[in-house]
Amino acid sequence: MTTLACPLPHVETEAVCMGHGSGGRLSAELFRSVFQPAFGNPILDQLGDQALLHIDGAHLAFTTDSYVVRPLFFRGGNIGSLAVHGTINDLAVGGATPLYLSAAFILEEGLPLTTLRQVVATMEHCAAQAGVQIVTGDTKVVEKGSCDGLFINTAGIGVVPSGVRLAPNQVRPNDAVLLSGPIGDHGIAILAEREGLSFASEVASDTAPLHTLCADVLATGADIRCMRDPTRGGVASTCNEIAQSSRVGIVLEDAAIPVRPAVRGACELLGLDPLYIANEGRMVVFVAAADTDRVLAAMRAHPLGAEARRIGTATENNPGLVTMRTAFGTERIVDLLTSDPLPRIC
Amino acid sequence: MTTLACPLPHVETEAVCMGHGSGGRLSAELFRSVFQPAFGNPILDQLGDQALLHIDGAHLAFTTDSYVVRPLFFRGGNIGSLAVHGTINDLAVGGATPLYLSAAFILEEGLPLTTLRQVVATMEHCAAQAGVQIVTGDTKVVEKGSCDGLFINTAGIGVVPSGVRLAPNQVRPNDAVLLSGPIGDHGIAILAEREGLSFASEVASDTAPLHTLCADVLATGADIRCMRDPTRGGVASTCNEIAQSSRVGIVLEDAAIPVRPAVRGACELLGLDPLYIANEGRMVVFVAAADTDRVLAAMRAHPLGAEARRIGTATENNPGLVTMRTAFGTERIVDLLTSDPLPRIC
Predict the structure, then answer these.
(1) Are residues A68 and A117 in the same domain?
(2) Are residues A200 and A60 in the same domain?
């Protein structure tokens, strides 16, 4: 793995910095140096987006996420839709059927109640549409200036159907890497809203619940190794995690990766790589090569997978490393970023 | 009920205020006017500290709480012990055996990593001592000034043994109200730390996991109607909630309620009523009168219930109202406070 990797200076810091929340190298470092040594246990160490629990004969998935997106409202959604979809998706990509959510609010003194009502109405709408129930909650209030309007945490419980065994360490050489649709919409929609970028104002977040798409993929009976929703750190970070967990190389095909023209344009103007931009309604599927076509067919038959494509292949070469074959025939390393060009994206 | 209640002016506000997080009247108002109309469903409407779920034959309890206590460290504990104990306790008072926790962190840029490490070590210590596992998590970072150091959310899953049926609407006239130990320690310990009150510096938080005490109470086979841990809003707010849910009156005996001298002294100096001060390791048990003695005996046999006392009785009179019989033989109303004298206590 290290043969191709650039020798980066060792990043060390004695205080939390924005990069610790990026989903990139510093996030992984924080997990490995602070959380894993303390909390490490066989369930947490699986490093899934969700914990798999066996309780009284039931096979459950359990996950949590806090949402601190800025601004609270953006084209295509708001913090409430992210809080519901994001946690549904973390369950769904583990193969679970999402059932129940908790919702915990940290409110800043002075937040208009109309804002809270709008967010709560969106959460209920998204939950009802996805067939999940919000069953328990909590509200804390902090003084003006002690938080940024509104933070939400949702935790979720789902049921894992028997026979489903997905894990980030199951990808093997020659497996296909599939992507459900165009990337970068969510991150650019947030950035456009935050910075008032008129040239990207038409881009809407892709925030959506992926559980029925995931179920359709599993229903093919294909040999699915692992599914992921490429949120913070984008498709690049997701592929890096999987490459490292499964000790395979991953070669992506630049020309195969769908990016909307408005997103590509915004990224070019801002010097961003869409491969690192967060998505909130896209999924990456790692599947045995022989099953590629039927899984792609199932994805394309679903509204959220209509533009599904095969974007790459797992390889024996360069285990742990992700590379990109460009349209010009060259190959470049797709490294895990140290930090994140777009903080507070979810 | 209204016969004895003072006619308070109607409290309405169009922005979030500190009282909305108090556990008092404004919190209830926020729940009723914003969250319940949107999220309302049969599980949420039970208004327990935890949701009771039936999944694939398993009987589970599910709960969540965010922790925003200020300061992060105080005599007897820190935000990490609260985050573990608080969620364990919300499961425990529902009769559940706590099994798994999630832990989600919102970190402020610049937070010293040593602070985070200390909190995480405390969480692991508390979880291990209580026999629960932290199995999934999340970390977000926000810019300096966008949160107050460190906020933690924990959600918890527990198993409810068959036959356990506790609910806030099951208390009946003549039931006994039991309290596990002295009240107000946690709130006064926080206040002492926050305000540098030397006269209260000896008071340590009572933060503790109550699940084994709860299990011992249930193991008596007594007719337990409901258990609660009196956190925000203290014993007064807990009793008000139960009185309203069960449509009974509750008469408390002032002389029976244990308050440590240092806590009583601090409350007198500061004009606070210990009955409204938060506890993080105390429980209130509502039990059929005939079973009082054996439940008290079981509580006293447990280290966290050594000072357990009967503090009151449910009555047919004044349903929904809590009153206090003073040492002088007079009776006063113990109303739900509109707001909270001690914000950010957990």
Answers:
(1) yes
(2) no
Scan residues 120-179 of B and list those with Cβ closer than 8 Å to A: 120-121, 123-124, 127, 133-143, 145-148, 151, 153, 155, 157, 159
**Nearest-CA distance B304 → chain A (Å):** 26
Q: Which residues contact A45 (CB under 8 A, 6 or more apart)?
A: A36
> What is the bridge-based pairing of β-strands A249-253 and A322-325?
parallel
**Tens-digit pLDDT profile for residues B36-87:** 999 988 888 776 778 999 999 899 999 999 999 999 999 999 999 999 999 9
* A199 and A226 part of one domain: yes
Nearest neighbour of A135 by CB, restricted to B19, B62, B343: B62
Does B89 share its domain with B226? no
Model pLDDT for residues B182-239, shown as the tens digit of each residue: 999 999 999 999 988 888 889 999 999 999 999 999 999 999 999 999 999 999 999 9
Number of domains into which chain A is organized:
2
- Domain range enclosing A109: 52-159
Task: Give per-residue burial for B278-299: e unless 16+ CB within 10 Å, then b.
Answer: bbbbbbbbbbbeebbeebbebb
Q: Copy the structure tokens of residue A67.
A: 């949402």
**Is A250 within the bounds of a domain?**
yes
Chain A contact probe: residue of B46, B64, B70 with most A CBs at under 10 A: B64
Look up residue B291 and give its two tokens.
Answer: 């079973």
Among residues A159, A185, A205, which one ends one of the domains? A159
Within a domain: B316: yes
Nearest chain B residue (CA) to A57: B58
**Reported ipTM:** 0.94
